[in-house]
């Protein structure tokens, strides 16, 4: 693959947050129905002005800055003191100890952690199993490192006990030489949570076939009432070669600091540090200090944040379902992934028109699986009222363009 | 190349700042002479407690944080407003306009910029010319992306007009199919500055042979009295395909923010943004705001910083030269690259002993060119008195271990 082909696969204009770079084509000629007024809502990412960063984070950052050189020039894998604190709190959360010296690295965002995890496990010709739909960068990373994607469909509209990969498909892929399996759980974009049985089965298969696991648990804290989350790393079958990824960018709204954490196999963590040394050296030194507040929030703060998201989720589900739009119930996280009926315009144009005509930005489903051209994703970590009104505008737009 | 081989090439234990991960081997058995007391000095990187971050940076960062979501979620290439300001100030500094929309990207440190620049120009089999000695990551990046290194020796102990590559060697390399030429100017680790004639000749050759240039100008502001710096991008022969890299981590001591800037060919910048989208998304949003102070410092501040470094440089040169140690005069930057006489121990052990016995941390020359096993690098952006005392301890240590 030459450089031109390689970068063709890395298109970012439809990526969340990049809409500003799409030209202002004239959409008038394609418009049906009228302009829909209201507060513009950008569902492509969370609104941290509606859900603000964890209290105390600014002060923690400032203390880091005041520490000067020792905080600016940490080890590439991050400050030892900060790793200690984060490791013990994540061990408690995930139900298994983490050695802060050898089993954890701080990265620039969970994106940084994913990049390093796949960079250390995928090279030219490596077969990597990727769920569909799943976070858009997973596919791109495998391709960038020269790997071969083995797609595994996600069952997310089925019975709760069946959510996740079809295990026969997954085992077949492992048998055919897959070396890495990367997936997000809770799933991005659907909010589906893999049940305990699936998690244990994945762990067992990975062990049996010697497959490395990269488990992106970015949304595992934002778990709705009645749901249970199972940490694969704490499964008794958890394979030696695995990396778990988390970070405070979403639930805690610390995305502006670019902080992520990867923890797991010392061999992989060591490689990830070597790679980080040529990628960006380290997560910005002062920003590492903001992690002091992570899993260390004021009493009740996280629970309140979850409750507020749950209310938005429920109201949006009502809006979409009343309009007959098929939408699975997110069990965790802040993504909805509704399915559109047949339209008179293609998904890409509909998404552009949504923005132009109704002031609503969403992410097309094709970012998460090439064939998902009738779905779109909303990050509903937004102002509650504005989000509901925007969902109602989406429903009206579907009416305008229904085939 | 399999993953194990790939990561073997990425060793970081000798990298600056990573000394903490080298085990505390017992060096007693190898010691000659006594312990040398004094303030420990870590010459592997600059001391930002001695040379503090630009005044006003903390406040600029805080204003960024207060701006909330718009500052946290910028375009992947960085905030448009901040790019505007940086582009116009860098245009003035480098003597050629920069289109802030298409010709500039903010990155996590200049390391991030280098990674992206080489990631977009080097793939499996690409021949890349690399200077020796030069910044250690250049070699590693070419190897990581599957490229083939074509080494070009740096003339740095010659007449000022001859500093840089031997132009015949460089042209031969270009003739043999080199597609990318990456180099730092001022050179890291020697502080050599390429004269105008060399810069123009490099530009002409790159044009003639269609070679992309990646010019790392990280230290181009810290230019000593009587020296002239020539920006390749402003040369009338500058090729279309080129990237210039700068950042505020060194002279301005903002390393703790992880900020860098790459500017040049829109095609390459566009690719770099695509790559950044899967590497780390963007330079940390709030940190971008710290660039407000860059090339915007209080009157006289930069000149004073240069003067202070020049005095340290001169004192260290005196210490080393009085002891008969060969050391080229840095024309810019804050690196010295002295050459050791023959010793009874190898360079790696001498460097370890320096740390153990004399409290002095330096970087072995082999990090900058595989064969340079009698040189070492000092970053003398340090407390003046402590640096001079540490240099005197180095001289004593050379006496202890001279063959």
Compose a concise summary of this entry.
In chain A, helix 8 links the parallel strand 6 (180-184) and strand 7 (212-216). With 403 residues, the first copy, chain A, is α/β, with parallel strands linked by helices. Chain A has helices at 3-8, 57-66, 69-72, 80-94, 109-119, 136-144, 167-175, 196-209, 266-279, 285-288, 301-322, 347-358, 384-401, and strands spanning 41-42, 104-107, 127-132, 148-155, 164-165, 180-184, 212-216, 242-246, 260-264, 335-336, 360-361, 363-364, 376-379.
Provide structural commentary.
- 2 copies of one chain form a homodimer.
- Chain A is an alpha/beta fold.
- Chain A folds into 2 domains: 3-52 and 300-401, Aspartate Aminotransferase, domain 1, CATH 3.90.1150.10; 57-293, Aspartate Aminotransferase, domain 2, CATH 3.40.640.10.
- In chain A, 37% of the residues lie in helices and 13% in strands.
- Chain A has 13 helices and 13 strands.
- In chain A, strands 2-9-8-7-6-3-4-5 form an 8-stranded mixed sheet, sandwiched between helices. Chain A has a 3-stranded antiparallel sheet with strand order 10-13-12, with helices on one face.
- In chain A, helix 5 (109-119) runs parallel beside helix 6 (136-144) and helix 11 (301-322) packs parallel to helix 13 (384-401).
- Chains A and B meet through helix 1, helix 2, helix 3, helix 5 and helix 6 of A and helix 1, helix 2, helix 3, helix 5 and helix 6 of B.
